[in-house]
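the two lines:
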Amino acid sequence: MLIVNANVEKIIELDNQIYLLKIHSPEIANTIEPGQFVNLRVSESTYPLLRRPFSICDVDGDFFYIMFNVLGEGTKILTNKHYGNELDILGPLGNGFKYEGEYETAVIVAGGLGSAPFPYLIRKIDNTKKILSFVGGKSSGDVITHGMNNILTATDDGSLGFKGNVVELLDENLELLKSKSIKVFGCGPNAMLRALSRFCIKNNFDCEISTECAMACGFGICQGCPVESAKDKNKYLLVCKDGPVFNSKDIVL
Amino acid sequence: MSKVDLSVQVGTLKFRNPILLASGTVGYGNEMSEFIDLNKIGGIVTKSLSLKPRKGNPPQRIVETPSGMLNAIGLANVGVEVFLKEKIPFLKKFDVPLICNIAASTIEEYVECTKILTGEEAIKAFEINVSCPNVKEGGLQFGNDVSVVGEITHKVKAVTNKPVVIKLSPNVSNISDFAKVVKAEGGDAVSAINTLVGTAFDINTRRPKINNVTGGLSGPAIKPIALAKVLEIKRSVEIPIIGIGGIMNWKDVVEFMIVGSSAVQLGTLNFINPAAAIKIIESLEQYCIDQGIEKISGLTGSYKI
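prediction for all of em together
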């Protein structure tokens, strides 16, 4: 956990106003794990005041990437960053995916911008394992397949791939999944993660999900990002410190 | 050896410099210690402690607003027992005065918590939170009632020999009336201000952006209000004041001292830059050198009106 000043290398616009920001920071790039995140200050101004959390999208040598779309003031400012701009970054934060293990196929399940952490995860997964990616969105423009392998797509409106949500697409492929030794890695809106957790518990699939929540600090002091624990009803876990990646059995969304 | 004397005194409490870290923005010290040397800080105010552990409010607990943030954490904390057993040992490793913030639902609970904690020698003082806007019982209900604040001050003082600081609510018409009753009932100091009640709504869903509907507003947006409240207390009551509210840099600290604060607390800033306190302390020293100020405590209440 460090605070570093890092320089923007470049900004890349993917389709449909999805951006990749490439940042030079050996300190972060050499230590961060897939599923971990950074908390980034977009400007020195007091508006926006708080840092913005971004999961790590990919790492390339001393550089790392974040993926974002324009949601508010903070991300709007980020789209104007260019080579040489300095960013104040706090990271690496949180717990990442546990991608090592006995399984043979990693099943990636992403909804919308939930694709963000997967390029790095896929890169880090031992290449003796297979990757199978299920990527969904409301419409074809919301399906982000950057850095994904072996992709099946789903859209709510049927404009691309399977018509329906990404968990329904998994269910369509249940026999295929059951024939393999798999581990599921999911990221996306809470409603999707809830459905994914239920699906995985029902079918006895090991599943890790990357969650998100509004937060101020990103390292446990503000207590702003609670998530219900499945094991202890008397306390909340924190997305920033106990997550953002959880085994789906450990939390109630 | 520094040429400038940065030490300050709040009643009988001595701090090596005026920079304290505010309750609820420093946890129990362990996370912050990764960013700063806690031995260099003036003092630490712990997260509010209640008699029993509190789970806190369901999400969403925070939302950002222009130059500020609303929070409704709901006093999530480990409770006094776990604090003494598991949190104090870590804090004891540092040479930094510890102020224990106490929150409660009843007057008796404040007294009970203080009684349990007062024997712990690492705790140098208590800050009584009579002004949390985010819990159903106690909290702001107490902070809005002059006689209840007086009663809490009196009863807590009766069970401890350690200094008692009352953290005042800004959500009142005359904050100085509350400072007066604290003084009259034997309180040693006041800290001002706690957060301001605020809210934010989503214009599409028409629903509040935080689960608790309202939350406490903090950050630079509230600084002018906090300064006015500190000044109001300073001009009407002789009681030491710890200034709080939207401090973002050393200049803000100087401003708070000029209007009457003996020390200050950094709050929301710790979320944004957990290393800020050290930089501020260094900058304050430089300011004093530049201004030919030998003792920073001389700034307190040095306003010219």
